[in-house]
Write a structure and sequence with these properties.
With about 325 residues, the chain is of the alpha/beta class. The chain contains seven helices and twelve strands. Helix 1 packs parallel to helix 7 and helix 3 runs parallel beside helix 5. The relative contact order is 0.14.
C-alpha cells in the first residue's frame, strides 16, 4: 500500500538547498532562485509551475506525478506525467541542468501514457542504471500521444486535425523547461517510444535535429500510416522519417542518434535493417538492438534498455554536473 501513499496530493520537484522546501510552492523559489555556475547551457525553470498531483510512488521515494497541459503553440490540451530521479532534489545538483527523456507509448496513447505505470519498470531501470554508472539521471516526461483513441495522428500537424506535431516538438519541451532544470542545447534532449510512439519519437528527432539529439525507437514503426493523411501527400512526406533522414544526409547534419530495439519474437526488424542500410549514414547514426525472446510490449523494451540501450543513449547526451564538496 506504500505505493499508493500520497496519491492525489500536490507534488513539487526541486528543493531550495538553503531551506529544503520544494520549489513548487507558487513563489518560483528553490531551483529557480539558484544561479547556474560554470555552464551557460543550464536553463533554470522558466515557469509558470504546473499543478502536479502524485499518481504513484517508487520504492526509492521518487514520485510519478500528473498534470494537464494547455499547449500554447498547438492549442491542444492533454495530460502529461512526469518523474524526476533522486539526484534532482540533491543539493549538489541544485545549479545543474538535467537531460530530458520524452517517453511515448504505443497504441492510441490516449487517454493515458503507459510509461507512467510503475509496473513497466522504466523509472527503476533508470535509477538502477544511475547506480551502476550505465545511465544518466533523466527527467522523464510522459505526454499523451494522441488527442483521442480513434485514430493515429502520427505525432504530426495533419491538416484539419489537432496539431500533435507542434504539441510534441514545442509544447511538451516548453513544459519541461517551465518546470525543471534542463539544458538550452539539444545535447540534453531525447525521445524514447514503442510502436507508434517509436515512430513519433524518431520522426520528431529527424524533423527537429536542432532541438533533439537521440531516440530509442522500439517496435519497428518507420513510416507515417495515419488514415487522416488521405489527400495530404505533401504534408505526409514532410513527416516521413525516410525523407527526413535523406534531407539531413543531403544537408550534412547535425548528427542524430537512432537506437532501434526489436524483440526476436516480433516482426519489423526488416524495416529497421532497410532504414539503416539506406539512411544510416553521414549524420544519421543508427544501431539495432535485438532483445532475445522479446515480444512487442513495454516490459521487454525496458529490458532492452537495461541491457544496453540506456547506456547507449547516455553516452551521447549531456550529464548533470554536481557541485564539488
Amino acid at each position: 500500500m506504500e505505493w499508493f501513499s500520497g496519491n492525489g496530493e500536490t507534488v513539487s520537484f526541486g528543493k531550495d538547498p538553503a531551506s529544503g522546501k520544494g520549489s513548487g510552492d507558487g513563489s518560483q523559489g528553490g531551483a529557480q532562485a539558484a544561479t547556474p555556475s560554470g555552464d551557460p547551457d543550464v536553463l533554470m525553470p522558466t515557469g509558470p509551475k504546473a499543478d502536479f498531483k502524485q499518481v504513484a510512488k517508487l520504492d526509492d521515494g521518487t514520485i510519478i506525478a500528473k498534470t494537464t497541459l494547455a499547449g500554447a503553440k498547438s492549442g491542444f490540451t492533454g495530460d502529461v506525467w512526469v518523474w524526476a530521479p533522486k539526484q534532482y532534489d540533491d543539493p549538489k545538483y541544485a545549479k545543474s541542468g538535467f537531460p530530458v527523456l520524452i517517453a511515448l507509448p504505443g497504441g492510441e496513447g490516449y487517454p493515458t501514457n503507459y510509461w507512467a505505470d510503475r509496473s513497466l519498470g522504466l523509472h527503476k531501470a533508470i535509477s538502477d542504471g544511475v547506480k551502476a554508472g550505465t545511465s544518466l539521471p533523466y527527467v522523464v516526461i510522459m505526454p499523451v500521444l494522441n488527442p483521442d483513441a480513434k485514430y493515429y495522428y502520427d505525432g504530426s500537424d495533419i491538416p484539419g486535425q489537432p496539431k500533435m506535431g507542434t504539441w510534441m516538438a514545442e509544447d511538451v519541451p516548453n513544459f519541461a523547461k517551465a518546470n525543471f532544470r534542463t539544458y538550452k542545447s539539444r545535447d540534453g534532449w531525447a525521445f524514447m517510444g514503442s510502436s507508434s510512439g517509436a515512430f513519433v519519437g524518431m520522426k520528431t528527432v529527424l524533423q527537429h535535429p536542432d532541438k533533439f539529439k537521440a531516440v530509442i525507437a522500439s517496435g519497428g514503426e518507420i513510416v507515417p500510416d495515419s488514415p487522416l493523411w488521405k489527400g495530404h501527400q505533401a504534408e505526409m512526406d514532410a513527416n516521413n522519417p525516410e525523407k527526413l533522414a535523406k534531407k539531413l544526409i543531403d544537408s550534412n547534419g547535425p548528427e542524430v542518434y537512432i537506437n532501434f530495439q526489436i524483440g526476436t519474437k516480433e516482426t519489423g526488424k526488416d524495416r529497421m535493417v532497410k532504414f539503416q542500410q539506406q539512411y544510416g549514414k553521414g549524420p544519421v547514426k543508427t544501431t539495432i538492438r535485438d532483445i532475445q525472446n522479446g515480444e512487442h510490449n513495454g516490459w521487454h523494451y525496458v529490458r532492452g534498455m537495461k541491457e544496453g540501450s540506456l547506456e547507449w543513449i547516455s553516452k551521447v547526451l549531456k550529464a548533470p554536473k554536481p557541485e564539488a564538496g
